[in-house]
Amino acid sequence: MADRSFGPTLLAGLAGAGLAATAGHRDWVELSARGSDQAAADWFWQNAPGLGQMPASGALGLVALAAWGVLLVTRGAWRRAVAGLGLLASLGLAAVWVIGALTLRDDVSAAVTRAELAPGGPWAGRRGS
Questions:
Q1: What integer best gives the mean pLDDT of the chain?
Q2: Which contacts (CB < 8 Å, 24+ apart) does range 119-127 have?
Q3: How many CB atoms lie within 10 A of CB 44?
Q4: pLDDT tens digits along 36-45
Q5: For helices 37-46 and 76-117, what crossing angle results, to 10°?
């Protein structure tokens, strides 16, 4: 029975780690505005790279992906050590996803608010419109 479960476990682990590595390099939050403010929102988003991302997710996803690769070619104590490292990376990913889901939208909102209030910012002179 153990031999039959290795293949699906391997595929699920590789797919999960690969998706996590990809998700870390994508925006988790989008910024949109109405009407004439959309140009300012686009300018702000382009000049604040990485604001809506969680780069730790990409790094931990790559660690988990590498751990799966090492698990395929090692045996014994090294395999157990790398499996532990992969487990820690996976737990870290879960923590990053929870923290990102709870805080990232508020962080982007706070950055936009600071930009609205900054003199010379993309929304300068548009308060109250």
A1: 83
A2: 121/44, 122/40, 122/41, 122/43, 122/44, 123/37, 123/40, 126/37, 126/40
A3: 21
A4: 777 777 877 8
A5: 140
